[in-house]
Amino acid sequence: MPEINVAAVLYPKPEKFDELAALITELTKKVQEHEPDTLVYYAIKVHDKNEIVIIERYKNQAAVQAHMKSPYFREFASQLPALMAKPAEMRVGAFLGGAGSVAAVTDERREAFTQESSRPDRPCLC
């Protein structure tokens, strides 16, 4: 069975952006620690928009189900309605290609991304 690729577009209320970003940062850490079959899971802030996109790649459907049923994801999902300006949009598709391995984000690289994201012209949630 092919891998499952997801892009989740979130639209936080402007005054709730930082709160949602903090929750996503914690969620990504838990996913990386506890979900070996979640191959890629990271978030970005869209430039000049009040949007966050979570990029996800799962080994198979069982990995998707494990993620959705995890206690930390359920807790995250329960908090979304109060933080969102409108419902999230989910896009599921086939991987077309790419370079490098986003799945291999080490703590050292995450720190570099975090430092880079402190620049106002390059926001990133890692």
Automatic annotation (TrEMBL):
Gene3D superfamilies: 3.30.70.100. Residues 4-92 form the ABM domain. Pfam families: ABM (PF03992). It comes from the Eukaryota. This is ABM domain-containing protein. It comes from Penicillium canariense.
